[in-house]
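I would love for you to help me understand the pair of lines that follows before we discuss the fold together.
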Amino acid sequence: MADSSEDMRLRESKEPEAIDEIRTVPNHSAEHRVRHKLDWNVMPLFFVLYMLAFLDRSNIGNAEIAGMAKDLKLTGNRYSLLTMIFYISYVVFEFSLLFWKRFPPHIVAAFVAGAQSWGGMMAIRFLLGAFEAAYAPGIIYLLSFFYLRREVGFRCGLFASAAPLASCFSGALAYGITHGHSKLANWRLLLLVEGLATLIMIPFAYFFIPDSPDKAKFLDENEKAVVRARAVRQTGVVDRVGRLDFKGLLLALVDPIAWLNALMYFGANVSYASLPLYLPTILTELGYSNINAQGLSAPPYFVAFLFAIVTTYIADKTSQRAFMLMATSAVGGAGYVILATVKTVGVRYFATFLASAGVFSTIPNILAWTLNNQGSDTRRGGGLVLINVVGQCGPILGTYALFNDKKDAPQYVMGMSVCAAFMFFTTLLSLALRILVQLKNQRLDREYGANVDEKGEEGAVAVENYGPTFRYVM
């Protein structure tokens, strides 16, 4: 692995006087206090915003069985096209990650409730995907500015766990709304309530999300000095915002490690996107009433919420991301195998727990691994762009091709089988990537020596950039 020109510039462009004034040897008690403040001041807001964003994109599954299919005449493949169009615009506008703003501009979600036709709903879903394209990947990218390499995975898990919790909340909310009696159609009321919640959060996002840790209003000057020292230990510079090296970006886009992550993300996303959209429908077709299907879709997602947090925490502590990914993807694959082969209702419902837990915990571990193994800020951003452009094509397959034919209901053998295959494909890719980075680490050990101070205990600088102290996370 050779250093890119960007990496060399990052090491050489440090202002010597400014860097020398910053104490880079970590003060563990001070860092713990700062990390605690970051966790309690930015992570809850990121979490809530992503939960609302995920509600906006996935509530169409609950709306479909709450009367939308009948009112908008969603015959043939119209519902599948509605779910697919979101991801087409999501992929097309993914480049906006590199120009990420401070809050998710998915205000249009509140207007979904006003759609009067299938064509109108298609247009709104397209806009929703375009506006949301940079939000979740942008927050993941921003986390790498707030947290060190060995800390960011757990925060990715906390952030991404909002998705299954949103699905859990969506099921419970849909249950409550569809159980009542409103003059407005139940599905319209459902989408209106969830969309307006996003509008309420916009001022909080604008005023309370800091551009970078050293600009956080909730940190005092001493604590800002700590985050500046952490930034120097990470990348060798204090001001990391506004730097974009196009050569480094191109290097990330052709990096085999980034491509393996992207293919893993594609495989996991085939299942990740289709599950919230079709689980209520699957439960309905297993014989449950519409109202009971809404309620029964919540427990599997709550288990997935817990798994997303626990697995990323363990992977951070052990620095064994590959083994964790192999386990989570295999659990998800096993769930889909059961759904494809077993007809007993109780067993199939149990399988939704396995599928949900496996799928929703695989995604944040892939995101964290992408951040872990790119050695500059620009390349981390490029890696996220790549995995999202490639990976978000997975939902197009998962939401349109696999569950399009109602003749396959309620078992959807083909759809479940393909989801299982892609989850096991992710398992194999995880093993392949671990072998690759292990070989790269062995080569780095031969070149620089095995006993490296990657954590910066002795005041090392730019330890997360490519160089003598950089080692890939396995």
Q: What stands out?
A: The two ends are 16 Å apart (CA to CA). The chain has 21 helices and no strands.
